[in-house]
Amino acid sequence: MSSLILDGKALATKIEENLKERVIKIIEKTGITPILATIIVGDDVASVTYVRMKGNACRRVGIEPLKVELPESTTTEQLLEEIYKLNRDDRVCGILLQHPVPKQIDEQKCFNSIDIDKDVDGVNVASFGAVTMGIRGYRSATPYGIITILKEYGIKMEGKHAVVIGRSAILGKPVAMLLLNENATVTICHSKTVNLPDIVRTADIVVAAVGRPEFVKADWVKEGAILVDAGYNAGNIGDIDLKNSASKSSAYTPVPGGVGPMTITMLMSQTVDSAERKYL
Fold first, then answer.
1. Could you say which of 129, 163, 191 is where a domain stops?
2. Is 98 noted as a catalytic residue in this protein?
3. Positive or negative: CA dihedral 230, 233, 237, 242
4. Is 54 one of the catalytic residues?
5. Which of 2, 94, 226, 256 is most buried, most CB within 10 Å of its CB?
6. pLDDT digit string, tens, across residues 103-138
7. Residue 278 annotated to the active site
8. Catalytic residue, candidates 7, 118, 119, 121
9. Model pTM score
């Protein structure tokens, strides 16, 4: 079987070109450059890298990045005050709180304090609720990227059995809801699921989001299944054993170059959406 490679990197580049044009129109009409504010608490090495990547993506599409750096000792109340300042700032179209935050901070409380109209990373529970109900709301970026990839490559979701492995608030749960909105029949699996391999073998679409390298084995995969690997582990290894599974699939996302590049691009896309609603 010849498997279709779902190239997220190429799609992300294509989407960025469109975003550039949309940002130019906003600036030409209003004289205002949209701003995406990113808050980072502490100096976690991975977080610093991700924030830099997001800033670079902003500049590529013409958005102005605003980085708010807070010390490791920041309290929940201090972080909330910074978020409230950005909520009130009319120049800011999107607010991102870089995950994770130090343990003394109530992360979900801070996520929920982000203005729903600026919650371009879809972390506020109100955003999740809106998306779940099929009404307008900003989606969690990685799940949104997954659905966008599937649509771009003409992958039919309606009527298909999608098995999501992982139930995190920013990936497993929201991608399950987005698949349900596309009329897929969705099963959510997790660490307590009994007979997981047997369930995966029934899947037309497998979304792996467990954070464990090559967790999904080739003999779990049904011939012709769509494989979406949302994992990224040391050594550029995903959550699916793609070396042995890809040939059984009809289409799959590679690691790297599949889901990963789409995450930041969808964050940019939703920031531009916010700017258009605000200014046009």
1. 129
2. yes
3. negative
4. yes
5. 94
6. 999 999 999 999 999 999 999 999 999 999 989 999
7. no
8. 121
9. 0.95
